[in-house]
Amino acid sequence: MKRRICVGDTVYILAGNDKGKQGKVLSYLKQQNKVVVEGINVRTKNIKRTQENPKGKRISIEAPIHISNVCLSINGARAKLSVKNAEKGRELWNTTADGTSSLYRLVKGKKG
Questions:
Q1: Hey, what's the torsion of the CAs at 95, 100, 103, 107, to 10 degrees?
Q2: For the stretch 10-46, what's the b/e string if a residue is b when 16 or more beta carbons lie within 10 angstroms of its beta carbon?
Q3: Does residue 99 share a domain with residue 87?
Q4: Residues 62, 26: contact at Cβ < 8 Å?
Q5: Neighbours of 95 (CB within 10 A)
Q6: pLDDT (tens digit per residue) in 53-66
Q7: Pairwise CA distance, residues 95 & 33, whole Å
Q8: Structure-derived torsion over alpha carbons of residues 27, 31, 34, 35, reported in degrees to the nearest 10
Q9: Would the pTM count as exceeding 0.70?
Q10: Are residues 66 and 84 in the same domain?
Q11: Is 70 in the same domain as 88?
Q12: Taking every pair of C-alpha atoms in the chain, what is the biggest distance, in angstroms?
């Protein structure tokens, strides 16, 4: 699957219980094609009692969601991206609703 989302990007959630929310990408799980998004898909994990922690506790963690269920968000709106080849390498372009395009970032990888 093509990956156009990087760590630190703001994404829009397309499916699931958190549909319509936005968050920042914390990590990318390459083998599973999943991303962990800040404040999205939060799960509660119970920690057992130990000598260091005699009461035990509950912690909230963000669970990963599949990359097909998120899209890039630029200035609060969903973004449609395209890759174009240039002299400097490959570039990622954002196309807005009115048809104008703007350079979003350079993409790592070989030219062509």
A1: 30
A2: bbbbeeeebeeebbebeebeeeeebbbbeebbeeeee
A3: yes
A4: yes
A5: 14
A6: 899 999 999 999 99
A7: 24
A8: 10
A9: yes
A10: no
A11: no
A12: 62
